[in-house]
Design a protein that fits this description.
InterPro entries: ASCC2. GO terms for molecular function: ubiquitin binding. This protein is mostly helical. The protein has two domains: 102 residues, no CATH class; 49 residues, no CATH class. It has seven helices and no strands. Helix 3 packs across helix 5 and helix 4 runs antiparallel to helix 5. The longest helix is centred in the C-terminal third of the chain and has 24 residues. It is flat, with a radius of gyration of 20 Å. The two termini are 19 Å apart.
């Protein structure tokens, strides 16, 4: 969020990021409980619960959850110098609500972690092999190749 060319642009990006976070927070906020009590099938015929709807329509998935942590977590960028953002303070509650609404996300994260570990290990090995050794799949790669590999 902080890698922008000027303060006006940074302010606009921060405001947009805040609004995006607000949308995600409202999706899992408590307002759905009143709807569930008032309407027989508030999420349509396909979905029993809000969690089923979120999961079935891919509102959240492991990459989006990781993105939320990366973008709104309290540990990064220039925002830390100005203090923890409201989004960073609210992020644990949002994540808790997502995992409470649909516990299947726990299994998805557990399945994704070994894959991420293996992929990051492969990237590290290709980017910086040990002294005098070739990377497992060939020579070390440069920054441009690494960028293309990550995309």
């Amino acid at each position: 969020l902080e890698a922008t060319s000027n303060d006006g642009e940074a302010s606009t990006v921060a405001a947009l990021a805040s609004r995006v976070f607000s949308v995600y927070a409202r999706v899992v906020g408590g307002e759905h409980e009143a709807l569930e009590a008032a309407v027989a099938r508030p999420y349509g015929e396909e979905y029993e619960t809000l969690g089923d709807l979120l999961y079935g329509q891919w509102v959240f998935d492991v990459p989006k959850l990781l993105d939320l942590c990366a973008v709104y977590g309290g540990g990064g960028g220039g925002r830390k110098a100005r203090g923890v953002s409201p989004e960073a303070r609210m992020l644990p509650g949002l994540l808790s609500a997502v995992f409470t609404a649909q516990p299947t996300y726990f299994a998805d994260v557990a399945e994704a972690v070994p894959l991420m570990r293996r992929t990051l290990g492969e990237i590290a090995a290709r980017a910086a092999p040990a002294e005098g050794e070739a990377a497992p799949d060939g020579p070390a790669i440069g920054d441009d190749e690494l960028h293309a590999y990550l995309l």
